[in-house]
Specification:
Number of domains: 1
Shape: globular
Number of helices: 10
Helix content: over 70%
Largest sheet: none
Distance between the termini: 35 Å
Order of helices and strands: HHHHHHHHHH
Structural class: mainly alpha
């Protein structure tokens, strides 16, 4: 039992440290922000961060909790792969619906979030950030289920480093400083997603389970 406790603490620490890396990037870049951005522009960055994180929560639809629940209940490999495929299809459909609706009202959203209609491009980038973060959610969750904490941490921290380097580039070397902040956060998870495609292909069974789909939707909706 003691060994189980130690293992759990070790796993939790690894996952926790990987998430800290995301916040660490913002801490490291803050001095750069203070030099290149006005107070008003920094306010736009903060509002944009809040917006895409809330938006991404809606796009991910609490699927993470559902996968862990149903995955642990099933002992059959094919059933588990079918579950992951079913949930992935649900996630794609939800994302397409919400993203399509959002892109139709970028001007209104810009006015609501930033008190100005001048930031429609940033709204689009925020939507794309949410989408890209949602896409990598499934393969990252697979790594967690497989208890591959080191691989999980490497992937998350690599994404953070790519994002940081891209932001530094856009801020210092281009005229798209404000937009570059958000574009960088699209580029990083998108590249990571491409690297995680092999994990997805070996973990999915192209079999949609209608019963599980219904149960997952009912479970996640609240």
């Amino acid at each position: 039992m003691l060994s189980d406790v130690k293992y759990t603490i070790k796993q939790s620490a690894v996952y926790g440290l990987s998430r800290v890396s995301i916040k660490l990037v913002a801490f490291i870049l803050f001095p750069l922000y203070s030099v290149y951005f006005s107070v008003e522009q920094y306010g736009i960055i903060v509002r944009g961060e809040i917006f895409w994180q809330l938006f991404q929560s809606a796009l991910f639809f609490a699927i993470e909790t559902a996968i862990i629940r149903w995955y642990s209940l099933s002992k059959d490999t094919i059933e588990r792969k079918s579950l992951l495929f079913t949930v992935s299809v649900i996630l794609i459909i939800i994302n397409l619906i919400i993203l399509s609706a959002t892109l139709l009202f970028t001007k209104s959203i810009s006015q609501l979030v930033f008190n100005s209609s001048d930031y429609q491009v940033i709204v689009v980038f925020c939507v794309l950030i949410s989408l890209s973060e949602t896409l990598i959610g499934i393969p990252l969750l697979i790594l967690r289920i497989e208890e591959r904490a080191s691989k999980y941490s490497f992937v998350v921290m690599t994404s953070s480093v790519i994002s940081m380097l891209a932001q530094v580039y856009f801020i210092i070397y281009t005229n798209y400083k404000l937009e570059g902040i958000f574009l960088s956060k699209v580029i990083a998870p998108s590249l990571i997603f491409l690297s995680l495609i092999p994990i997805l292909t070996r973990s999915l069974e192209l079999k949609f389970n209608n019963i599980v789909a219904k149960e997952v939707l009912i479970f996640c909706y609240p």
